[in-house]
């Protein structure tokens, strides 16, 4: 049993190392199997493994919090890897993509399994920075810009997380994450610590206003990378909230809870509205993820405000992440199918779209019905009154957003387009498997959620949900024409808030240089003249030699061995 926990993380790393060997052609066949161990571990009884010799005493394992995340991660990484075998066959920088794909997978699975503070941050940072390689895979200017924005926000989020984790570590040591919520009141300033951690994980969740990386990364990343980015990687931010915030305890944080609810409402509405005026299908899906994660943020905020209702809120969260992960992965993979003009890809694309909108008898209806049950049962008059209204508004906006997506992604030349055999073999089957699992989710979700949520479907709710979605879909064709005739000044480019901010910063910089350069370089002072450097050419040659891949790899390996030796000696 302990070997399976180890193998879940080590298997993707071993396959990544084998990519550089002569057997790479055969190693590619192992990539879809790299995450299958995670599925097996998630289906087994809870287990834990303690490694006191690693880092500051690492612990990995499964429990009621992470088992659903692990199952979803295993399914999505396997499906995306199998899809990539056909979709990425003719793409450039294939080795780079698979290397960072496997490293991101190992980091993601490690963060999910981690049960101590140091291990969680190590794997979380590995996942975060290795995902950059998938975003810039094709090397285009737009991809490099998206990667730059992603790195800036990722580093900002990591700085916030480090500040919060150092605060915890200084007072509690390498604390067990299962016990952290119970000892949160022992911290000197628990509200500040929780605020730092909330903000750091909000970057990964794509919450407004730190959401701009999502809208840029998804159009740039390959389809299989987008499927896991939106399906499971951003949900690791939710796992961070569940691990590091005092949820389910009686330590009430009203200010932080209200802030998260407001941030969630803004994200839910902002993402849906801005997504409706986009012109790329993957960009529309990126804003849809921002909107849907806004609802998740609202639930976590309500959990901080009403600790006694955490049990049912947690159950709804688990159903929501399963539903959203499978639906969003199916939609992104569907973009890859429709772009190749695959037969029947258009009608099949409607299935995950209707599920994400919350059509009756789908997983989305189950998830949003649970959300409505939560807000209606809370002992707060304003939330129980306006919560269902917000959810209905979100359903309408999501339906209009997905109608826009289907309009953009629908294959125009499905009858005349070519259908490659490799695409049929490697892409169609995993996509159909993804859709099939999404359809079955309402039936097997109860096996992973301890408390029943929306165990029965009232006729009134079914009719209300069906009529709301059908009315919004019928109105959508007017919206398409309206969006098509929007003036240029009214269109919002992908990246939304980032574009005016960077524009004004550039104008300020040019104004300082061209108009106020004397502030930087006064006329009475001249810049020192740099003379010739006799060692310039030898230093350049030495730098080029040291930058060679084998030497860099040896240096990194020696650094890691030194760190391991240091930690072992310290223990």
Automatic annotation (TrEMBL):
Compartmental location: Cell membrane; Membrane
Example GO molecular function: NADH dehydrogenase (ubiquinone) activity
GO biological process, one term: ATP synthesis coupled electron transport
UniProtKB keywords: Cell membrane, Membrane, Transmembrane, Transmembrane helix, Ubiquinone
Transmembrane segments: 6-21, 26-44, 64-84, 96-114, 120-137, 149-172, 192-216, 223-244, 256-277, 284-306, 312-335, 347-366, 386-410, 431-450, 462-483, 551-570
Pfam families from the UniProt entry: Proton_antipo_M
Membrane topology term: Multi-pass membrane protein
Annotated InterPro entries: CPA3_Na-H_Antiporter_D, NADH_UbQ_OxRdtase, ND/Mrp_TM
Superkingdom of source: Bacteria
Location (main, coarse): membrane
A GO-annotated cellular component: plasma membrane
Location of the NADH:quinone oxidoreductase/Mrp antiporter transmembrane domain: 114-367
Family: Belongs to the CPA3 antiporters (TC 2.A.63) subunit D family.
Name listed for the protein in its UniProt record: NADH/Ubiquinone/plastoquinone (Complex I)
Organism: Desulfurispirillum indicum (strain ATCC BAA-1389 / DSM 22839 / S5)
